[in-house]
Every structure is written in C-alpha cells, then in structure tokens.
UniProtKB/TrEMBL annotation:
Residues 11-160 form the VOC domain. This is Catechol 2,3-dioxygenase. The keyword Magnesium does not apply. It holds the Pfam family Glyoxalase.
Length: 184
C-alpha cells in the first residue's frame, strides 16, 4: 500500500449542479433554505455560476445556460423518492445537507409552509430489510427529510444519530451486470 505523498482532502469544497432558472434557484436556496449567496460569476459563453453557503465551510453551486439540455428524470435525476429513486451510472442521485436531529421537524414545517414537495415525514434509516423504520430505535443511524428544489433535484436534510464502527462495514462490494455498460 502506498502511503507516501498521500492525497489529503479536507471535505467537499462545493458540489456543482445545473439549474433551469437561476432566479428561481436563488429564490429557493436563499429564501426557503436560507443559504446565503456568496459568489456569482458570469461565464464567457453567456452562462452563470452561482455559489451558496450551505454551512460548515461547504458550498453548493449552480450553473445556468439558456441552451442547457433538458432534464432527464429517471436517468440523470431521481424520478420520485422513495419508490422510483434509481438513476443512471454517473448521475447525481441526491444531495444531502447535514442538519441537527432536533431541527428536522421544524425543517418539515418550513418546507410545508413554502409549498415545497417533500416526504411529509422523517425517515428513520436502519439496517432492516426495508432500510427504514416508522419509529426511532437504537439501530437507526440517520434520520432524513427528502424534498426537491425548483430544478427537480432531490435534496435531503440528514441527521446522523450515532457513531459508526467496524460492524457497520459488513457488505462486500457488488459487481456484475451493468458494471461494464457504456452509453449507447
């Protein structure tokens, strides 16, 4: 194993997504999610690139181009969570923002007040066959609220509820059909 000259990252600087309308995107991220807009860029090709502070020294950024390709739900983005959440290889499935557990219920209320499509409940993710439980219990490792932004991007408020240990890594990585699929 090579350790000399190891690459050391300090987390995610930003995630860059594409929006269909920068004004709607700015209104949503600054107004509903209360993420300050801290940098705007006009691109030489007529597009824009805007950055929002999502807390903890992290940012979410958006590109906008008048001639961007159309959205492709079910391919490049989630069609409908939780029952139609599969997306294509290389796509972004969803973006999760860390949130304190005590703030999840208030976040649900804020999404409801703003008329934002959301899951209407906090999901308790556990290791059961379904992957979630209706009630909180000691096996729940993250609690989540899922919603979409004006661009159809699936977002999540996620609250980790316990520390992870070696016992949490117990599945072998999968390989098989679909592994070598290339675009047609």
């Amino acid at each position: 194993m090579i350790t000399e000259g190891r690459i050391r990252t300090g987390g995610i600087n930003h995630v860059a997504l594409v929006c269909r309308d920068m004004k709607q995107t700015v209104d949503f991220y600054t107004g509903v999610l209360q993420m300050p807009l801290f940098k705007t860029v006009e691109l030489p090709d007529g597009g824009q690139h805007f950055f929002f502070d999502c807390g903890g020294g992290n940012a979410v950024a958006f590109f906008w181009w008048a001639d961007a390709p159309a959205p492709a739900p079910g391919i490049a983005s989630v069609k409908k969570f939780p029952f139609d959440a599969k997306t294509a290889v290389g796509s972004m499935n969803h973006l999760a923002f860390h949130m304190n557990e005590a703030e999840l219920e208030a976040a649900l209320e804020r999404l409801e007040e703003a008329g934002v499509e959301h899951t209407h409940m906090v999901f308790n993710h556990d290791d059961s066959p379904s992957g979630y439980a209706r009630q909180m219990h000691e096996g729940v490792f993250v609690r989540s609220v899922y919603f979409t932004d004006p661009n159809g991007i699936m977002l999540e408020f996620a609250a980790t509820t316990r520390a992870f240990g070696p016992e949490d890594v117990r599945h072998a990585p999968a390989s098989g059909p679909g592994t070598a699929q290339e675009p047609a």
